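Hey, can you fold this one?
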Amino acid sequence: MRQHVITATSRKALGRNDTVLVIRLVSFSVSLAAATIVVLIVRGVNPTGILTALGAFSKALGFSLQDVSRNEFCGLASTFR
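Sure. Predicted structure:
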């Protein structure tokens, strides 16, 4: 995952500090999510509903940010012409 983040941030005009910040944020978020799911499983909660809700939320978030990211990319592309 770290290599994927480094590759993705190297395509953009991010400095080394920004890349380290993104790596740490992604790592912390994934660790927190995994720990939360493990704690819920240990406490006897069925994770299927939680994972289904998270999947639906991430899909809705992706669809809602689709136009924003498209406009951002077009704005960046037009500045480099």
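The CA atoms of residues 37 and 50 lie 8 Å apart. Let me know if you want another pass with a different chain boundary.
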